[in-house]
Amino acid sequence: MFIGAQVSLYPMTSDFVDVILTGLKGLDPYRNDLRIETDDMSTLMVGAPGPLLDAIRDLFAAAARRPEHVTMHVTLSRGCPGEPDDPSCRCETLTRAQHQPLDQRQAEARAAVADAPVTGVGIDVQFSLYVLGQDRHMDEIYGCIDFLKASGTFLRSKNFCTRLRGDAGAVFETVRQAFLRFGPAEGHVTIDLTASANSPSLR
Amino acid sequence: MFIGAQVSLYPMTSDFVDVILTGLKGLDPYRNDLRIETDDMSTLMVGAPGPLLDAIRDLFAAAARRPEHVTMHVTLSRGCPGEPDDPSCRCETLTRAQHQPLDQRQAEARAAVADAPVTGVGIDVQFSLYVLGQDRHMDEIYGCIDFLKASGTFLRSKNFCTRLRGDAGAVFETVRQAFLRFGPAEGHVTIDLTASANSPSLR
């Protein structure tokens, strides 16, 4: 199994380099657990979903604690058949989920969101979950949407994606649960996610 | 068939509202052909792939003609089983592609990129193509990657995505061809795309 993300932080300010450096400090606690490589368009992070989603959350929360409008784009992927197996990506939740019916996975996902840490940073997210290589992929999508609606972070459905709103802790836990508990445990699942904070449109 | 995109423009400047308004002027010629709705996170565009990708290209090219660093995120989708049929999304290329073998689709895609208009705006793109609801989805992905490598806009492969570089005309034509000619014509295909221009990392 290979799990990782391509992550880009977009501060809407002429001081964007400074905001990006503030965000990168949020990654420091995770540098031993993740492989992190940056180029001119995005930062690759490879590792288990525990540190991976925590790192993405803390990167964005650190940037969003500043007053400037900031957004982030994340391409998350697990189980892509074109990527090599990587032992550092092993995930107990995924292994267990393989043998659980949909309603049990939904219940555990809701419990995980309820237990999420509170960061004190309110954010907006919209994301799409893709279950690849399976004929009945929409069953898992609809099961995931039911979970999202009961997660406490659901804002509304949009064409092609779902809007979440809330504390960065609960919102990124919701995303992690969607990523891990829906679609086959050994399958290829991806998420296309956009986060936003301090938008002047909401003032 | 329902075809559309959620599009967000991210100018890395404190004048971001002004850059976004410049970009939006690029959409004006397409307002009769597309349904366009904006909220605080993204702009929904629904319509046939001809005007849809032209509009996305011209939105980004208009913003990128200014000197500021600007990025864009696009979630493209066709054939999502959860969306209603929309006659305005009808696409001759898709209908024809249904009966064509892979090598013919690759050849027509290369020809379309060679014929793309030149905008004079150099851009970088990275994107992922997802073919949903099909057991052998990686065959179409590898077929698409072969086309990308021969497209003239290919820069390199990355984990989870492919980098393109070139004139906005050729780059967005490459994306449109990937979107239309790979994966089943009646199937559910999505693209997760990030574009960048005027990045200080490349200076």
TrEMBL record, chains A, B:
Domain named Thiamin/hydroxymethyl pyrimidine-binding YkoF putative: residues: 4-83, 124-201
Pfam families: Ykof
InterPro entries hit by this protein: HMP/thiamine-bd (IPR015835), MTH1187/YkoF-like (IPR029756), Thiamin/HMP-bd_put_YkoF (IPR011522)
Full protein name: YkoF family thiamine/hydroxymethylpyrimidine-binding protein
